[in-house]
Amino acid sequence: xxxxxxxxxxxxxxxxxxxxxxxxxxxxxxxxxxxxxxxxxxxxxxxxxxxxxxxxxxxxxxxxxxxxxxxxxxxxxxxxxxxxxxxxxxxxxxxxxxxxxxxxxxxxxxxxxxxxxxxxxxxxxxxxxxxxxxxxxxx
Length: 139
Hints:
By secondary structure, the chain is mostly beta strands. The chain has one helix at 3-22, and strands at residues 37-44, 47-48, 51-56, 59-70, 75-86, 89-104, 107-112, 115-122, 125-130, 133-138. Strand 1 (37-44) and strand 2 form a beta hairpin. The longest helix has 20 residues, at 3-22. The chain is elongated, with a radius of gyration of 23 Å.
């Protein structure tokens, strides 16, 4: 086998692949995709709302709604509702939180005084993952 010929073919292929990778319109990059807007919860672990968070003995907790609003200045706000049923009594309470976010598209980390959660944001979809829970939000 001709080592010099093989090396030339490899280098020619490397140059061709590199040239293909350099082209394109940078406006289609995920880094340039605007992420600001309101994302509404659609599914939790692929299940629609209401999502049962807990159902033990005489207590049942259900997530009824949730949304995140992301702003251009790297801030976010969450607003949602959950239903708590206990021994025949039903209470609807509010979920609310605010914080900042770090974006390294498509990866996003939401940070608040309650902790942080990682996910991804692209194509009008915000996906947040925490332990065994995957929540999908849509713009």
